[in-house]
């Protein structure tokens, strides 16, 4: 039985969530959190893990839509109390 590439390739370590560069977009109204993300994607070195903080309720929909439409992977999204956290990798 042959192994698939996923079985033979070394596993990629999981991201270090707490080591992410923080983009603080709290208290910014829609669409400002998404615009802060877009600026950060180009400002940081490709491959840098970013964590965007937002308090705008619409950011949940915006970030998921952005990921789907742009082809970028939204690595993780969660809500902690009144703050939404979104993790993506920087780069163009």
UniProtKB/TrEMBL annotation:
Pfam families assigned to the protein according to its UniProt record, in alphabetical order: TusA
Matching SUPFAM superfamilies: SirA-like (SSF64307)
Stretch forming the signal peptide: none
Residue span(s) of domain UPF0033: 22-86
InterPro entries for the chain: TusA-like, TusA-like_sf
Domain of life: Bacteria
Gene3D superfamilies per UniProt: TusA-like domain (3.30.110.40)
Record's protein name: Sulfurtransferase TusA family protein
């Amino acid at each position: 039985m042959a192994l698939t590439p996923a079985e033979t390739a070394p596993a990629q370590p999981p991201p270090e969530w707490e080591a992410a560069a923080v983009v603080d977009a709290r208290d910014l109204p829609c669409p400002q959190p998404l615009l802060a993300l877009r600026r950060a994607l180009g400002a940081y070195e490709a491959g840098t893990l970013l964590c965007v903080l937002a308090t705008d309720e619409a950011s949940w929909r915006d970030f998921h839509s952005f990921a789907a439409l742009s082809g970028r992977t939204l690595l993780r999204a969660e809500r902690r109390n009144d703050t939404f956290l979104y993790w993506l990798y920087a780069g163009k």
